[in-house]
Design goal:
With 249 residues, the chain is α/β, with parallel strands linked by helices. The chain contains nine helices and seven strands; from the N terminus they run E-H-E-H-E-H-E-H-E-H-H-E-H-H-E-H. It has a domain of 165 residues: Spore Coat Polysaccharide Biosynthesis Protein SpsA, Chain A. A seven-stranded mixed sheet has the order 3-2-1-4-6-5-7, sandwiched between helices. The radius of gyration is 17 Å and the shape is globular.
């Protein structure tokens, strides 16, 4: 706990057997009370490794439902456990789990309701091996998103996010995509609901075992991001009603 607030880490996993142990070893259990791993029907031994490590909350989808659907299960389970702060971390060891402590602390202190671990602040992305084309795509998309959403984030595409539970209760994340664009729909909802997002610098590792999206899914993702950003701008201007921005039922 931090300041009496329960911290739950959620790991949306897919074929993470080779990296899960390293991720687990670096989680700061001095502040993290529970860990939930949701496996999206991996074809490797992710679930077996999770159980060998002693992760008590392991949920497996009986079929592959997608990255967004995985997160929905993660957040539902964390809220059911009574989490006050929920930290979402990819278990592919690209991001440093030790940063859960400062991220959760910013929320526990009341300074911010949402905190992102940014690969772009500082020089973490390129030094960590992010491919140049991914870096350039990240920068272009982020520029367009900031313009359309009226914000100043360094990036919208990180897989390392911490939320106050009240934020997730307030937005209808179940109205979002089951695919990769879920993250950007959630960011859009958070800003539309009036919450602020803080960022901290996060070193990043790129290596063969780490997860990566192929070219065609990346293109679809980029187009989805642009669609969400345009919808956000039109909804904010009152020119379009987008259901995902309605209060959670």
């Amino acid at each position: 706990m931090i300041d009496g607030k329960k911290v739950v880490a959620v790991l949306p996993a897919y074929n993470a057997a080779q990296t899960l142990e390293r991720t687990w070893a670096d989680i700061p259990f001095a502040v993290v009370d529970e860990v939930i791993l949701v496996d999206d029907d991996s074809s490797d031994d992710t679930v077996a490794v999770a159980r060998q490590l002693g992760i008590r909350q392991v949920i497996r989808h009986p079929r592959n439902r997608g990255y967004g659907a995985n997160q929905k299960t993660c957040y539902d389970a964390a809220l059911e456990l009574g989490a006050d702060i929920i930290v979402m971390l990819h278990p592919d060891y690209q991001y440093d789990p030790r940063l859960m402590t400062p991220m959760a602390s910013l929320i526990a202190s009341g300074a911010y309701p949402v905190v992102f671990g940014s690969r772009i602040l500082g020089k973490g992305a390129r030094q960590g091996g992010m491919p140049r084309y991914k870096y350039l795509a990240n920068r272009v998309l982020t520029l367009v998103q900031n313009l359309l959403l009226g914000q100043k984030l360094s990036e919208y595409h990180t897989g390392y996010r911490a939320y106050a539970a009240d934020v997730l209760r307030a937005i209808d994340y179940h109205a979002n995509s089951d695919g990769f664009v879920f993250d950007n729909e959630a960011v859009s909802q958070i800003f539309m609901a009036g919450y602020e997002i803080a960022e901290i610098t996060c070193p990043t590792r790129y290596f063969p075992e780490a997860s990566s999206i192929g070219l065609l899914p990346s293109i679809r993702y980029g187009l989805g991001v642009l669609r969400v950003s345009l919808q956000h701008a039109l909804h904010r201007l009152g020119w379009l009603h987008v259901k995902r921005y309605d209060a959670r039922p």
